[in-house]
Amino acid sequence: MVKASVRGGAEMRKLAANIDKQKRASYPCPSCGKAAVRRISNAVWKCRSCSATFAGGAYNLSTPMGGVGNKALDVISAQQKSSNLKSGGKSG
Ligand SMILES: [Zn+2]
Predict the structure, then answer these.
(1) Is residue 9 helix, strand or coil?
(2) Closest of 31, 28, 43 to residue 70, by C-alpha
(3) 28 CA to middle of ligand 1, Å?
(4) SS3 for 53?
(5) Spatial strand order in the sheet of 53-55
(6) What kind of architecture, by CATH, is found in domain 22-62?
(7) In the prediction, which pLDDT does 91 show?
(8) What is the pLDDT along the chain (92 residues), one digit of tens a residue?
(9) 80 CA distance to ligand 1 centroid (A)?
(10) Per-domain residue ranges of the chain
(11) How far is the CA of 31 from the centre of ligand 1 (A)?
């Protein structure tokens, strides 16, 4: 019993799954750089690491951060470069 895939329905389901993934994913924090930003509300994102809150897209953190955010990132990336580049995690 092989049925041809239904156009529209399948696409919509794929789209919904994609959005669900994006909603669950953690995004890199523009403030501290850690991938700990999660969606807490419709378009509100919060970093679990530094507790910074951002207003972004409804389903992903695509916020036009130009200015303050960029400046902060510049400083942070400079700090991270000089700081230890340890990426631990496996041992536990
Ligand atoms: Zn953060």
Answers:
(1) helix
(2) 31
(3) 8
(4) strand
(5) 27-28, 35-41, 44-47, 53-55
(6) Single Sheet (2.20)
(7) 57
(8) 566 655 678 888 888 888 777 777 778 888 898 999 888 888 888 899 999 988 877 766 665 544 445 555 566 666 777 665 555 556 55
(9) 13
(10) 22-62
(11) 5
In this prediction, residue 67 carries a pLDDT of 45
Q: What is the pTM of this model?
A: 0.45
Q: For residue 92, how far is its CA from the centre of ligand 1 (angstroms)?
A: 23
Q: How far is the CA of 33 from the centre of ligand 1 (A)?
A: 6
| Tokens describing residue 26 | 């953690």
Q: Residue 47 Cα, ligand 1 centroid: separation in angstroms?
A: 5
Distance CA 59, CA 29 (A): 15
CA of 26 to the centre of ligand 1 (A): 11
